[in-house]
Write a structure and sequence with these properties.
Length: 305
């Protein structure tokens, strides 16, 4: 059986179609302990109408009695080697040969009423009910604590752009800011009259400055997911922001964190370049001065005991 289940008894529901009958059977199977029981009316069922991790269900919406052939096809639909409990539902009744066959193949037989209530039709079905009644009630789900809004903002912030992207955006931004000045005196652009030339210049100036200003303003991006997750292969822990004021000066004079120094020394000894280690530290949120101190400590030879 599955783990947590809904211990509330399914409420009566009108069974007016075979789709409702299958969904009603799935509700009762979840109540009996098969928490992942799901009905998919209309889909390819291969003889199985309700599937769960430890049980398979078939639902008949018919007035005729269910006989041995229907149960035989149900047993044949169970995957080879499966030990899932077979549960059969019908709104009518079962023949004596069906009851005998169900006892031989351990099939639980249930009858459902027009209000959706289930009645066991054999001892195996009653065993399924008793087993469900013996299960303790599932604990209420723990309240989900939402993350602070500031943490959500930090998680959704885009990562800082690499150096080549920042330099490229700066070059394009400055070029666009100066481009309108270079268009002055161009006879192909400004063909008169003067009022029209002035409108053209203002349009060119506005468009270039808007795009150039945007490129310059966003050239660095913002520190976000990269600072939280870190690049692949880096095992540095996130460094909390340094407090301002006298406490910040005290933190600056304190020795750098030993774990960061040890990790930087390990990376240097493995053949990583100092600028590569510095980039990893920067991406983890370590400030400029502290990065220098960590690298200096990591480069010092380890004293022999």
């Amino acid at each position: 059986m599955s783990g947590a289940t809904d211990r509330a008894v399914p409420q009566p529901t009108q069974i007016s179609s075979w789709q409702r009958a299958e969904h009603n059977a799935a509700r009762w199977m979840r109540y009996w302990g098969y928490a992942d029981a799901t009905a998919r009316p209309g889909g390819p069922d291969a003889g199985v109408d309700v599937r769960a991790r430890g049980a398979l269900g078939q639902v008949k919406y018919q007035a005729a009695q269910v006989g041995r052939p229907e149960l035989q096809r149900f047993v044949g639909a169970r995957p080879r080697g499966s030990t899932a409990q077979l549960i059969f539902f019908t709104g009518s009744d079962y023949t004596q040969s069906a009851l005998t066959y169900a006892a031989e193949w351990d099939i639980a037989l249930f009858r459902y009423g027009l209000d959706g209530r289930m009645t066991p039709a054999n001892d195996i079905a009653r065993r399924v009910q008793r087993r469900a009644a013996a299960q303790p009630a599932a604990p209420a789900p723990a309240a989900r604590v939402s993350a602070p809004a500031s943490a959500a903002v930090r998680a959704s912030a885009p990562p800082e752009r690499p150096f080549w992207q920042r330099a490229l955006r700066m070059w394009f931004g400055v070029t666009l800011l100066l481009a309108p000045l270079g268009s002055l005196g161009d006879e192909k652009t400004y063909t008169g009259p003067p009022a029209l030339d002035a409108v053209k210049f203002v349009g060119i100036l506005t468009g270039c400055w808007l795009v150039g200003g945007y490129l310059l303003a966003t050239r660095k991006g913002r520190r976000g997911k990269r600072n939280e997750a870190g690049p692949p292969g880096a095992s540095f822990q996130a460094v909390p922001p340094r407090p301002s004021g006298p406490s910040g000066l005290a933190a600056l004079s304190a020795p750098p964190p030993a774990d960061l120094v040890a990790e930087a020394a390990r990376m240097l000894s493995s053949g990583r370049k100092p600028h590569e280690v510095d980039r990893v530290l920067r991406e983890r949120g370590v400030r400029f001065l502290e990065r220098g101190r960590i690298l200096n400590e990591a480069k010092r030879p380890t004293p022999r005991p």
